[in-house]
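Work Package 3 (structural annotation) set out to generate three-dimensional models for the target panel prioritized at the project kickoff. During this period the team completed the workflow that converts sequence records into discrete structure tokens, so that structures can be stored uniformly alongside our sequence database. As a representative example, we reproduce one entry of 402 residues exactly as it appears in the project archive.
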Amino acid sequence: METFTGSFTQQEPIPEEGIEAAVAVMRHGRLHRYNVEPGELGETALLEQEFAAFTGAKYTLAVASGGYAMGAALRAIGVGPGDKVLSNGFTLAPVPGAIAAVGADPVFVEIAEDLTIDLDDLAAKIDSSGAKVLLLSHMRGHLCDMDALMAICEGAGVKVIEDCAHTMGAEWKGVPSGRHGLIGCYSCQTYKHINSGEGGFLISDDPDVMVRAIILSGSYMLYERHSAAPPSESFEQAKWETPNVSGRMDNLRAAILRPQLSNLGSQVEAWNARYKIVETGLRNIPGLRVIERNPGGLYVGSSIQFRLPEASPGEIDDFCAACAARGVELKWFGAAVPKAFTSRYDSWRYARPQSLPRTDRILAGLLDMRLPLTFSEDDCALISRVIRDEALKLGQPDVATG
């Protein structure tokens, strides 16, 4: 039997340009974003300028993590204890965690067959909950019909914050992910599309939102050193009223990220080439369902998902173990106990219990796999063959027992 011997957690090395820039920061010692010489724009301020240009946003704030970006976004628009905030029933723990961390009440929305938020259930939950904020997760890079979603939310007076942890570099009908809502939040955690170990961004065209976000991040009244920010006079009122919840990015991480951002376009092409090989290899397998992408979106194929909708929990467990024995690591979102990144809405006990039967049905057979760029295209073809081999065994009698 063919076996894959690569690593699903090994990322590409930092570009030499980023290593040299990081060493330069360490040599001069000015790691803190506000520790700059007169007239100097530090690495963080330069990165913010470049990310604003990349997304087309008026303002960008670089922060310590994607989770911090979401928390700052919620605080910046005034979400507080007891407020209801809508979000996908299928996402990762930092999303509801950001809602719970400001004392708000997560209201989970069903998902559709393509893993995006269910727009009919969203409209219904807006009506039933009275929520005025949606923290929308583009989970695993799956973009819903953003035009339809924004029409629903704008019609109901709901503010949209986009969690773009898996969609940096993605687009909906030519508009970058993160640019439909009031605020876009991004992650630079090590498995994301640019890698500083931890890190993130918050973008917005709204000057009041960005003023509060910058002060929240811990500006210490040094907001004039932000070059992708509203003018200094915009801070005059908010600086007296907005608490410091420090979460700045430092110049060392920014130095590492800048060359990665400039190369992101070619990285997206490389990811999508690998994704297409695996997706093609998984098509037309009895009992296995590929997740269809909406043609209106440009995705970033840094991971792939598929379903085994007819398999029992025991069969899926055995299938994952068989793939693992051949070197292919799959994550199962339907397991009874959450493991690593596979927690789901019913395991987040800081949120009140809720019932999402459609989401439960979809997640019961949902499998997830990373596609790091350290994989070659030949690796991806091999991985798809391993999955195909093991999927074709599902439902077949065990040779040993008959």
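Residues 264-392 form a domain with the Aspartate Aminotransferase, domain 1 fold (CATH 3.90.1150.10).
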